[in-house]
Queue: 2 jobs
Job 1
Amino acid sequence: MPPAITMSDESSVEVAVPKAGAVVGAATDPHLADENPFEEMMARFDAAAELLDLDPGIYQVLRHPERQIIISVPIQRDDGAVEVFTGYRVVHNTARGPGKGGIRFDLMVTLDEVKALAAWMTWKCAVVNIPFGGAKGGVVCDPPNLSDTELERVTRRYTATLINTIGPESDIPAPDVNTNERVMAWIMDTYAMHKRSASQGVVTGKPIELGGSLGRREATGRGCMIVTREALKHLGLPLRGSKVAVQGFGNVGSIAAKLMEQEGMTVVAVSDASGAIYNPHGVYIDDAIQYCRDHRFLRGYPMGEEISNQELMALDVDVLVPAAVENTITRRNAGDIKAKIICEGANGPTTAKADRILNDKGVFIIPDILANAGGVTVSYFEWVQNRSGYFWDEETVVERLGANLVKAFGDVLDVAQRHSVSMRTAAYMLSVERVAAVHRIRGMYA
Ligand code: NAD
């Protein structure tokens, strides 16, 4: 694996959401200037709700997070000074099971961002039909400016303050931006000390030695490969020899590229933040991964022609995998895209306006909440293994992940065909209906 710039989990979405109110305005990140992923996500929820003729009461319930917690996280810095950070945990919905979602440490974290990310997790877990709801957390801090021991104190204090919120049966965190396996180990340890119980299932994305699952690291990229294979089959296109371009060469992009190459597809271009590499005969992915390990970025990789990220997006390929950051496919470049299939490895890579352009062109888009749900699916497997105390071999994880995603792809395709809607609208319809159905069965406790 090339060195990851940020650590992210099944749920990470680089959204920028303004400070106040449910209505979202301009984003704070310049490249999101006129398109905000949260607003777009909720607009897609609204569209699905309308098509489903959703009960107005359930609609209101799903628009409001169940729980929003703001905490102070005071720690003593290494020099003895006390500093107080702000932390959040939002549980959007637990109708289908415990809240599930990562914790990010970042200066840009806001409560509204965390709310958006928590809701996104609700839909993602429902579309792949795993028994989790949606949650998310964050601490407003700058990890590069914290020592390891300070980071540990932040993590442990955050966990201790939320000790009655998180738990294997209520709300299960995972890694996200700037948090990793080590942070999950501290959370698990703090929880175990307070509860006097070695509950491994309180977090996922743990080190293998501590109850992490084999195959978790590769799960999101593997999921991209699996749903792409299904899409090619559905469209009657051959797998072997299909041309692929992958934008983003981190955890998701590099693994997706590697596994697609293994399936006999020709990965003609890969890119990262430093630029893109094009080789019409196929980029040798292991070699490119090794180059990235040695040089941190792809720039200068000699086994191909250097092109720009924009040129990569416009290549004449069968499959395009945006696996970098949000909003890389906008109304400005959607018209140039020639791929027949887009597999959204990243969260929110396609804006609503771009979506319309691509739909008009007949591009088959596998939406993010389905395409990158392999990560949260294996997080679910990790939780199952922790609760049963029996660990699966990697083959079993891979086989069950495949079965789950093939089923989810088929379910979404079925809704898309029955209602003559896009795969994205179908994925939202399926997930919103699954959550709504549980609310109807459970009734309203008052
Ligand atoms: P990562 O940090 O490991 O990799 C990101 C890659 O994108 C890096 O190669 C980086 O150089 C590249 N990049 C950044 N900006 C770019 C740009 N403008 N153009 C081209 N490349 C750019 O992150 P990751 O874990 O691979 O996550 C990638 C995306 O997938 C994110 O949207 C994340 O939210 C989403 N996601 C990740 C997981 C997971 O399990 N890691 C799960 C679900 C969704």
Job 2
Amino acid sequence: MGIAAIVGSPIKRREDPRLITGQATYVDDIKLLGMLHMEVLRSPYGHARITSINIDEARKHPGVVAVYTAQDLKGKVGNIPVAAPLPPYITEGMGRRTPLADGKVRFYGDPVAVVIAENRYIARDAVDLIDVDYEPLPAAINVEKAMQPGSPLLYEEFGTNVPVAIHPPAEDIDKVFADVVANGGVVVKDRFVNQRVAPSSMETRGVVAEYRKSDKALSLWSSSQIPHLLRNYLAEQLGLQQHKVRVIVPEVGGGFGCKLNIYPEEALTAFASMQTGRPVKWIEDRGESLAATIHGRDQVNYMEAAATKDGKVVGVKFHVISDLGSYLQFFTDVIAIAFTLPMLSGCYDIPNVYSKCDIVFTNKAPTDAYRGAGRPEATYMIERAMDLVAFELKRDPADVRMQNFVKPDQFPHTMATGALYDSGNYAGALEKAMDMIDYRSLREEQKQKRSEGKLLGIGVSSYVEICGIGPKGTTPFGVFESARVRIEQTGTVMVYTGTSPHGQGEETTFAQLVAQEFGIPVDDILVMHGDTDSTPEGRGTYGSRTTAVGGTAIYQASLRLKEKMKTIAAAMLEASPEDITVEDGKFSVVGSEQKSVAFAQVAATANTSNTLAPGIEPGLETTVFFEPAACTFPFGTHICVVEVDKETGEGEIVRYIAVDDCGPQINPLIVAGQVHGGIVQGIGQAMYEEVVYDEEGQLLTSTFMDYAMPIAPELPLFELGHTVTPTDVNPLGVKGVGEAGTIGATPAVAAAFADALGLKHIDMPLKPEKLWRLIHQQ
Ligand code: MCN
């Protein structure tokens, strides 16, 4: 493979050998001298007042070093940080979380006390010795009931469970709907439940905290997606100087958004280390992970769509009800508002889009970002709307989509939601997917199978999503990215990124970007991340932003160093810098290629100043911050084909086509891997996963026996295709792909099952029992 073709090459991930041979270091692998262990006592109730806590027996237990409750933290540890608190109630403190429950517990799994002991087993035993008296309270579990007056209140002092209700006047949209009806058009409506799911990363959360009293400095290892934000907020929570806090993120065994958060356990281990003078470790177990790590989705949505009789959708109305759970985590309050509402028009040029939104506290674990965060919910609604219009008009769902798409020449396009889409070719992706599966023949086959009594269903989902944040003002702290690139004397390139990849493969793709610029092998480049002491200020990895924003910073830093190297090479070759080109690891003079100097020689000259031409600053190092002017909008079409067994209700995905467009692909193999993983999580929500609480707030899905995750034998081989539509919001033209699969998959699978049963809509998860009952009308 030529160096010039390095961007766009499907090279294998450089991070994988250490991961698959067990040589990687995760938080639980960190063992420090004298390290203590923390275990957490969690609420067994969904909603209860704490009337007393007796820790005497636990304290006396041999091997226990300390026991802490909320009382011990008062004035010493601040509340859990919230990235963007919305007015009015939230800014007044509603939903704010103390690291240990103070006076009241609000969900099953709410931390009440911690035990610090010589080992994990002692700590666990001592947790059982803590005696808490609870006065159980009625719980608000069903989100629509929790909105009603008279429902149990999580925060009595505010008199409501609904901190933010956005209800714009509806006269205009009502008129649009009335006109459609008057002109013989159709109105379709439905209620969709986007059920609560648990992110379930393979590695659960974990923290090790080591505080050195001598210099008031804290080192904290955490399985996190946001090292710098964690450092900044944690310093504030603990009253430490920011530069005395070092956050290190070692290998992370998946995050999927749930580690884009600052949890109680980070401050609690740090506090315990500050108090005891010894390092403290906490590792979450699977039960805790299912109960007390954030959950995703959980929206109830009402949709109405109005279309002319020939299928043009002219108006949509949505009521988005977002279940926040019990407290605010980092982005809990803004997921629906910032990521669902702007995307409600999907890929379609709908002139009138109306949405109202309520965000509601309930006695369940907090919700927050889970792969897709708000966009899967929007996509599900608008895609179901397109299917319902097609169903009503007896049209093919692919044709209705094609008719309503924003056209390629309309970009950049401001949607009726206010979102400004950068570029797209939605019809191109749908056409490609239809070609790949031979859609028209498949519909014929479906008719044939139906006539034989077989249930074959086809689901189409065309999605567009918002990613690559962020432009100025997107959050109170700014979401730029940074890169420091240093070229060593030997010619190796050290890349320090402020982003924090945790499975996405940027150690490989970022190296490809640099290799391409300098014409050197990928192996000569090292990508470093996840240590706040050595990497420049960054905002982390989430929202499929790392390549579009962090990758651009690296690209720009490389360009800057390339220019300097050209100046050095020009002096060495007695030529003018404008006449120097870089190719295949050599700087050459245009027109006389035999006059050249190797990349490593230029690097050596820059770093050994004795041979450097006068007037040139020694060294090859630069730092670049990149803040994009706008977000990017990747898109694609997924087509899913299912068969349902009439006797058992068991569904099987028999084919799955995904065509995704993330602009030019830096590494097609990695993109494919990201799409595969994303699709599996989308299928997981459509077919298997659901967090269930009973009416009192007991968690009924607290193990993997009750919470069904998709497993390999249940999945088909994915057939992938792609189109390439670059963006101009960054010089690489790239859009994100990390969440695309999850966003595209769920509506395609849901549509396929409804189609198989000949129904308009079936709420997820599409489990055999539900399908069997529908088939047999039980
Ligand atoms: N890429 C590429 N060409 C493009 C776009 C991306 O080659 N045009 C490559 C990137 O360089 C990177 C990968 O694809 O190697 C994903 O990049 P990007 O779309 O920038 O997404 P992020 O790196 O920001 O990843 C975040 C995204 C999110 S939000 C979740 S959630 C998620 C995901 O990625 N969580 C994951 N993928 C995951 N994959 C794993 N293994 N584990 C997780 O926790």
